[in-house]
Design goal:
Largest interface: A-C, 35 and 35 residues
Number of strands of chain A: 0
Structural class of chain A: mainly alpha
Radius of gyration of chain A: 21 Å
Shape of chain A: globular
Largest sheet of chain A: none
Oligomer: homotetramer
Amino acid sequence: MAEPDEFREAREKGLGRILALSDGVFAFALTLLVLDLVVPALAPNQGVSVLPGLLAGEWSGFFNYFLSFAMIAVWWNNHQRFFEYVKGYDGSLKALNLLTLLTITLIPFFTKLLDAWIASPVAVSLYAVNQGATGTFLALTWRYITKDHRFIEGRLDQKAVNRMRITSTIPPLVFFLSIPLAYAGFFFLSTPQVAWIIWYAIFPISYFVRRKYDR
Amino acid sequence: MAEPDEFREAREKGLGRILALSDGVFAFALTLLVLDLVVPALAPNQGVSVLPGLLAGEWSGFFNYFLSFAMIAVWWNNHQRFFEYVKGYDGSLKALNLLTLLTITLIPFFTKLLDAWIASPVAVSLYAVNQGATGTFLALTWRYITKDHRFIEGRLDQKAVNRMRITSTIPPLVFFLSIPLAYAGFFFLSTPQVAWIIWYAIFPISYFVRRKYDR
Amino acid sequence: MAEPDEFREAREKGLGRILALSDGVFAFALTLLVLDLVVPALAPNQGVSVLPGLLAGEWSGFFNYFLSFAMIAVWWNNHQRFFEYVKGYDGSLKALNLLTLLTITLIPFFTKLLDAWIASPVAVSLYAVNQGATGTFLALTWRYITKDHRFIEGRLDQKAVNRMRITSTIPPLVFFLSIPLAYAGFFFLSTPQVAWIIWYAIFPISYFVRRKYDR
Amino acid sequence: MAEPDEFREAREKGLGRILALSDGVFAFALTLLVLDLVVPALAPNQGVSVLPGLLAGEWSGFFNYFLSFAMIAVWWNNHQRFFEYVKGYDGSLKALNLLTLLTITLIPFFTKLLDAWIASPVAVSLYAVNQGATGTFLALTWRYITKDHRFIEGRLDQKAVNRMRITSTIPPLVFFLSIPLAYAGFFFLSTPQVAWIIWYAIFPISYFVRRKYDR
């Protein structure tokens, strides 16, 4: 099992680049979201006093901005926690990580779609599907890493591993469950925006589940 | 207190990723600002000799560009100085850091808003609120890190810690103080742009305070 | 041949920066692709139920998005595998790497060109030339690194080196071969899109070749 | 002179972040340039066969793209070579580095200006001033680092230091010299584009100077 030092070094360098690419994609996705926020145009014959009204009219854009920023932050936080104890990798882990990054880069697009089609249950569902996919890929990443302690070298105890398996399943589950809710809201209340309520529930739910399991 | 080597390694790796994400966001925000600078269009029947006049007409855009670039540089400089001696982290420090990054990513948006609504005290105030929030989150970060020498392992003496607490409070304070000034300027001089004068005062004030305390 | 420690350190730091620049460009190119995806506009007098139809009409845009994302991922994967064992560099390796990055940054442009001119064999060919150039520069990079074990310090056996020479030649070859195919498709079937079929063949071909050689 | 290990560590971490921010800015500036390349629009009643003509009509845009990419690569190359042997830093070095990054982020803007106002000696001069400023800040950075071997710990011999002082002065000098040339071209030949010829001379001149001094 003793591994030559130089191969260990190479592997750690390779792992470092996976994290560098990931942090780059997370950082740009976080920053790129801001391009969706529209600066209101000043119409002729209007005074500057109309600005608060124009900005207030964009409230749903700001709302979606904060939601998407918070979700990318949540996914990055999981990614950072998962890879903290990782000591190796293979082609499948790289592929799984690139799939996660694919859905991260799509978040600015689906946020813009949600902004423009706020009343469409299809736009709401597609946003939820993409976020749910990110969460699913991350949960699979953790399962793959910890399967038979493949890449974590037995340092984390099995209880901690299992706890993170459960907590990582909650956010994607919430997003997938929000899809029928969006359709129900659309047909019965003429608005799919009820999905938002359960999306925002991710933050307190995650908090309480983590507290419960951390005891 | 002796910590296994492997856990120490994991923690340093985790910290490295917080810095990598932060540097990515800072670098991207610095570069994204340039998209706000507008290349003047050549109207038909105009010679190229109109270019200097057109560029001069955009002076406030260039002015705001340099201000925002300088401020992101100031915030990055504080962030870099604070984290130089940091040896650990927890979830709250990550959350505080993500809040700082949120306000950093908003700087290009508020710069664009300021460009388009230069005569509106609301646009000036929102720019100041966002910059003030960045400075506040950074000042809180330093307090959180140094509280009971939580994450700095007793290497920095208390005097240096206190000095950085004071100097980190000045820039957000200046931004918050500029808000009533912008309104006063708007009502008495019909222009909120007096706020700029005190914004630019941040650079000499910081310089003198740092000199005084460094003695 | 014994090298002072401090020079070795400097060289590794220099190499680290080549990788940092490369990962930044790869991450940014991956994320920038999303700007090519267009959010459909809601026409007046239309209900939100038209969204699925509008998105379906953009299928080729999504198709090209996934292709370009997958190809940047493939090129990054090769780059990561090549540099894992690299221990030094010179000016020519830096130049070769910058040429690779040049073609990577052009991928979002050629993807947009392909989207807008899907029926033009010229657009299809230019996309293929750029992708083929990326693959060629990467294959040359591997040759340059491994020539007389220049920068890999004899750790990799010659068999592994040769295998990677062969596998790295396949993707650019496929792209260059797709160019006459695009023209044939254009003249005989009035569509250059047959090139796509062979582009997508890169993934299974690479997989089987790698399996065969890994035995 | 003996420095506690922990302070040395902190300083190297701080230096690492300066390089991380710089590489991020260089990488984004390289990638952001591509947004200046315009995909030609297909006019109604036109066949796809017009594409080559439309692309050829944008030749100067591609030309400027390659020039700016090559120059950012040259500046990054100098930056990487300078910092390879650097072992410390202070506030002035950080400030000098941020000024360099400021001019780097402006390159995409001045490239766009050059594209749109190709016949204006003002646009040509502004492009040259910005590039010349980048080169000047980099040359000053090298002087500052090596002054009394301030941050290089006596490892590089004075001859190598002096050689890099000379070679780093050439590119900014060429850019500043191109400004009167652009005006001369404009007044005598009605085109400021003669400046391009001397800009492109940077590459062979640098090559020969380096060869001569490396002997």
